Amino acid sequence: MRRSYLALFAVIVLIAVGVTLAGRAPRDVPPPAKAQAAVPVVRLAIEVRAGAVLPPRAAVPKDHRVELEVRNGEARTVRLALAGYDDRVSLSLAPGERWAGSFLADRPGDDFAWLLDGRAAGRLDVTGSHLEEGHR
Fold it and tell me: Which of 98, 44, 101, 100 has the alpha carbon at shortest distance from 71?
């Protein structure tokens, strides 16, 4: 009887060692994720002058990164924001000051207003459909 317990103990130890070694065996490393395609870039320069944004209407393609440059041609400090993107483009410019920044134009539409001191002073169109394959 003692031999059978000794044999059972030896089998249990061998199984435990085998499971431990199997758990520590090197695993296949998944291939690195494919790099996402670079986001296309479009440049847009606007100027604040005479209470308006120039050009008064501009368009950029949807899903492009907009590199924006703004120049204040007014003799006073102005507050400029882009309605619909005001979480990304909202700034205050001193007279003659320039500002450069970028944002992703991922919200399509044809009536985003440039708000100059809270009033519409120009328009930005983000062209492209929101009806893309796979979206409901």
Answer: 98
Longest Cα–Cα distance in the chain:
104
Within 1-136, residue ranges assigned H as helices are 2-24
Phi, psi (deg, nearest 5) at residue 100:
-130, 140
Lookup: tokens for 51: 């209470």
Under a CB-based contact definition with an 8 Å cutoff, are residues 44 and 65 in contact? Answer: no
pLDDT at res. 35:
64
- Residue 42 has phi, psi (to 5 degrees) of -130, 140
pTM of the model: 0.68
Q: Which domains does the chain have, with CATH numbers?
A: 47-127 (2.60.40.420)
Which residue is listed with tokens 């944004």?
53
